[in-house]
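Hey all, quick one. A colleague (J.T.) asked me to put the zinc ion job into the tracker so the inputs and the structure tokens live in one place instead of scattered across chat threads. No bug as far as I know, just bookkeeping. Sequence used:
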Amino acid sequence: MDYAQFLRRVPKVELHCHLEGTVRAATFAELAGKHRIPLPTSEVDSLYDYDTIEAFLEIFGLVASTLIDEEDFERVAFESLEDGQRLGNLKYREMFFNPTLHTRRGVPYRTVVDGLVAGIRRADRELGVGCRLIADVYRQDSPEVALAMVEEVLAHRPDEVIGLGMDGAEAPDPPERFAAAFARAKAGGLRLTSHACEDAPPKNIVTCLDVLGCERIDHGYHILADQAVVQRALDAGLYFTCCPTATARVYGWPDLSRHPIGGMVAAGLNVTLNSDDPTMFHTDIGREFVDLCTALEYGPEQVRSFCLNSVDGSWLDEGDKSRLRREMAAEFDALHAELGA
Ligand code: ADE
Ligand code: ZN
């Protein structure tokens, strides 16, 4: 086993991955055919190519538009977990989905969530990969639409749905717009996170913590511009869900050895590694570990921290968390011994 194979094979938990961004190109093409949705080209893989967040979000919406029946949602949820296991030894994922990208096309919320839950339960049964769901506010929606979405999530809530998050283009729509939606989710017992400081200053992290009540931060790369916010994150033991490849592409850090993730790790922040929108950025969770850890020349000790940070930062209950942590640490240590042999 070489070091790249080791990085691929170490056991992983993922906290930042969007269901709609995990759809295989072949499945996207098949579902578009099934529902007679016209695509700009029959070479769908070539649609997965962009260098701005806006261009990416347009295709993300197109992919979402091919998901209509409950069985479509079941299929993509299952395939996405199958890919995570096959390509990166994924054990457990907390996965985002965007309810309003579906409901605004007339797909009932129940169809979305029941399909996803069926796919997740099948992956648990057949593959032994766990998954929970985080409903994402889409920032380009109005605050009223976001609040209504949260009410819908709370009204039909299988055990798999555990949290509220927020994505979309960050720069034009600051987090404070969605204070009411987050307050309602918190009152309803959902855990809270948000994309922040991906394409905006560190004050968005402060807003997410103080106004929205977020417990994790998705991305966070510009935090290093404000030492007081870094110190606050260190004091609070805040977890950051970082995504090397996607941000290398759309936020202009093509050289991973100079990606701000390196500075965040050096500052002592709790960083986790994630694939964001794996198929849509031609990556996977295994490859994120290979590419980032190779570029930054991280040894096994840092890799072990990435693996276990994700368990510690997850929203599993304490019993499941400590069991998974024990199992993953043992599997990691066995692989590490094999690497050294
Ligand atoms: N939606 C899906 N992936 C996203 C990302 N990386 N940033 C913002 N919105 C997203
Ligand atoms: Zn994301």
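Adding what we noticed when we looked at it: The chain has a mean pLDDT of 97. The longest helix spans residues 318-340.
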